Amino acid sequence: MSIEIEAPPQVVFEHLTVAERMVAWMGQHAVLEPTPGGQVAVDINGYQFRGEYLELEPPKRVVVSWGIAGAADQPPGSSRVEFRLTPIPGGTRLTLRHTGLPEPPVSTHGAGWANHLPRLRVAARGRDPGPDMWMSAARLANDRSKQDETRGDDRADPRQEKRYMSDKPSVVLVHGAWADGSSWSAVIEALQAKGFSVTAPQFPLTSLANDVARLRQVLARQSGPTVVAGHSYGGHIMTALGADHPNVAALVYIAGFGLDQGESLGALLGGGPTPPVMAHLIVDEQGFGWLPREDVVGHFAADVDPVKANVIYAVQQGISMSILETVMGEPAWRSLPSWYLVAANDEAIPPDAERMFAKRMGATTVEVASSHVAMVSHPKDVVQLIEAAAEVVGGAGSQV
Questions:
Q1: CATH number at residue 280
Q2: Domain for residue 131, yes or no?
Q3: Into how many domains does the chain fold?
């Protein structure tokens, strides 16, 4: 597992060896003695992680032993965590290896590091990633389970057990321009069949601020960690969450815009030839852009059955053209792990631009021979990518 951090190796090293810097990104209390054999003690929402420093090479490498006080299968010092810090232009690439874990907790710890490393990226830049809520939901789930056992099985409510003990994060799907929530239908069906809680709301597309407000409204209704997947302009919406994303655990871009701070859609799209999808864009008197039927069927959804493509045309939502001039603030992908599906036959966003977005955000990337609407023409590939993100970030019920 690796992540790029916009801070020099010495600063990142200090966040691994100085207690007050450690708790800026992981846990609430730490005691660190950064010498070989010195203790490593980090408390995360009541769980006591314990070990010792094994090797230190300032500012290149830190190796510690790791475990949980009171855990029979992972006692203190039973596993090994290695942090390698490599200088890169503009910062540091941190590579993490956690070895020596028994089989079941491997994914649990992977999910933990997927939560904490983006927080480290924020803290190392001198910013506040917010309170560390990792594992607090798991403790709530365990407490609920114990209460049910105390009351007796006959009083335990299986609906509550499902709610609090689910080992899967929630999934929120964000549609883009010239589409609506129904564009995710095949993906929703597949994810629901696999036990995911899925929400695919409608977005007004009247302004970026209004769309982000709708996304925050929906996120506030989710229980526990949430994977947000955005298609096209939907990627732009979730990117604009910035560093304030309390329960978002991962971002999945499906041929989506992944702009950086200071960039705008208008400047990006104006930097090259007009994409075929937008060649005959119709702008109404209220300033909303719409696609003609021919361009939906022939370019926007070129690999979709024409009957379905005509449905996409019928349900399309126009987008306010003023959105193109809105400048992006701090992007959410700087502080969250990201996944990206490049649509190799895209005629709305140039595939090379998608590859650039994915590389810049350090996303786990797959490429599919798809039109712009991969969630319609290649839903299995989209579901697999969302599942991959969900497996890494985990859910409350997967915690020890």
A1: 3.40.50.1820
A2: no
A3: 3
For the beta sheet containing 288-290, the strands, ordered from the edge strand earlier in sequence to the opposite edge, are: 282-283, 288-290, 319-320
Q: Is residue 48 part of a domain?
A: yes
Residues 223 and 306 in one domain: yes
DSSP 8-state symbol, 287: S
| Three-state secondary structure readout of 23-85 | CCCCCCEEEECCCCCCEEEEEECCEEEEEEEEEEECCCEEEEEECECCCCCCCCCCEEEEEEE
Average pLDDT of span 366-387: 96
Is the pLDDT confidence value at 395 over 70? no
Backbone angles phi, psi at 108, to 5 degrees: -60, -50
The single residue listed with the structure tokens 């407490």 is 143
SS3 274: coil
CB hemisphere CA count around 296 (13 angstroms): 23
pLDDT of 248 strictly over 60? yes
* Contact between 346 and 371 (Cβ < 8 Å): yes
The two tokens of residue 354 are: 């998608």
Q: Are 241 and 251 in contact (CB under 8 A)?
A: no
Same domain, 144 and 204: no
Where is pLDDT greater, at 98 or 393? Answer: 98
- The alpha carbon of 213 is separated from its chain's Cα centroid by a whole number of angstroms, namely 18
Q: DSSP code of 326?
A: P
Residue 386 has pLDDT above 60, yes or no: yes
Least confident interval from 156-170, 196-210, 262-276, 314-328: 156-170
And the tokens for 319? 């987008």
| Residue 93 Ramachandran class (φ > 0 left, ψ -120 to 50 alpha, else beta) | beta
Q: At residue 169, what are phi and psi to the nearest 5 degrees?
A: -70, 160
Q: How many whole angstroms separate alpha carbon 179 and alpha carbon 182?
A: 8
Can you tell me which residue has the tokens 């915690």?
Answer: 399
Residue 315 confidence (pLDDT): 96
Q: Which of 67, 95, 124 marks a domain boundary?
A: 124
| Nearest Cα to Cα of residue 198 among 176, 177, 235, 227 | 227
pLDDT of residue 167: 65
Mean pLDDT (the chain, rounded): 87
Per-residue 3-state assignment (H helix, E strand, C coil) for 156-215: CCHHHHHHHHCCCCEEEEECCCCCCHHHHHHHHHHHHHCCCCEECCCCCCCCHHHHHHHH
Q: Domain range holding 146?
A: 136-165
Residue with tokens 């799209």: 269
